Amino acid sequence: MQLGLVGLTNSGKTALFNLVTGGAAEVAPYPYTTREPHRGVADVPDPRLDAIADVQGIPRRVHAQVEVVDIAGLAEGAGRGEGLGGQALGLLREMDAVIHVLRAFANAEVPHPAERIDPAADAEAVDLELVLADRAQAGRRAEKTGKAARTGDAAARAELSALEALIAWLDGGRPARTCAVADGRELGRALGLLTAKPVLYVVNSDEPGPVPRAVAQHAASQGGEALVLPVGVELELAGMDPREAAQLAAELELGEQRGAAALIAAGYRLLDLVTFFTGSGPPEARAWPIPRGTTAARAAGKIHSDLERGFIRAEVVPWDELVACGSFARAREQAKVRVEGRDYIVQDGDVLQIRFNV
């Protein structure tokens, strides 16, 4: 899972990057601290993996990972390729989802580029730049496709029709992900358009609380989700003794799922991912994220392409039943293990043992 952080300057993108990845990228009270993109990875917390490994005495645990990319803050003109942010939008197109950081914290030493604190207005400003960037990309594609369509190419004519619908939608200032024409939405995703990607609005606040009404309404209009995350507070807690941090978090009523874990969980929801596990014995137990609806054969290919090519069957047991039994072998003895074929839809929390022949 790759998440790209986007937002205005001094919105707290880099602080969020540091929180999720445990990095130490420079955070300063002036614009464009981030000139070159920051890249980092973080393990996806999942207590199920540890339970599977602990009960079987498996020493090595390999968590799923999320990659986070922090690009330069955007400003007016970024959608037309101007400034540092405009240069970084190409990198953002490679991401699976967009995390839109909105400033809601008050700090006179950290100036807002518009000299006001209005997260909903910030969301609208950045989203407009993303639409403009997508409009330019779609326009260039339409010019190229139009030439092929004029030669009578049927596929080009069909694509041009979808492009025209998509361009008309973008011209209305609306994101590709909400395009009323299904072919336009699909083409937007295929082209990697910024506004075709799933989006999460993160309200970077001074304290926990509900998502501001205006932000919630904007997120809904954009086909996205929103959450409130007091990034500064979470960074302080991350540097404390875990027990003291947990006590203070409870006093602040930050909730059970918070900080980096809350953001990662939101990313999984955005991309509709589930997790299956391998680990029927040593040397390792591993977590594998896959799109919901993935078949057993395709899941096997996630582990290694040879497993998908030579797939015979999958032995499957839910993680909690494996833990209750104490081992994969005992789960098999107690008839908790099912044998499934290549078209079985892998469920969240399944532990798989793949049988294959190459």
Explain this structure.
- This protein has helices spanning 13-21, 47-56, 83-92, 119-149, 154-171, 182-190, 213-221, 231-238, 242-251, 259-271, 296-303, 305-309, 319-325, 328-333, and strands at 2-6, 38-43, 60-62, 65-70, 97-103, 199-204, 225-229, 273-278, 284-291, 311-318, 338-340, 350-356.
- The chain has two domains: 2-34 and 71-269, P-loop containing nucleotide triphosphate hydrolases (Rossmann fold, 3-Layer(aba) Sandwich), CATH 3.40.50.300; 275-356, Roll (Ubiquitin-like (UB roll)), CATH 3.10.20.
- Helix 1 (13-21) runs parallel beside helix 8, helix 1 (13-21) packs across helix 10 and helix 5 (154-171) packs across helix 6.
- A six-stranded mixed β-sheet has the order 2-4-1-5-6-7, sandwiched between helices. A three-stranded mixed β-sheet has the order 3-9-8, sandwiched between helices.
- By secondary structure, it is α/β, with parallel strands linked by helices.
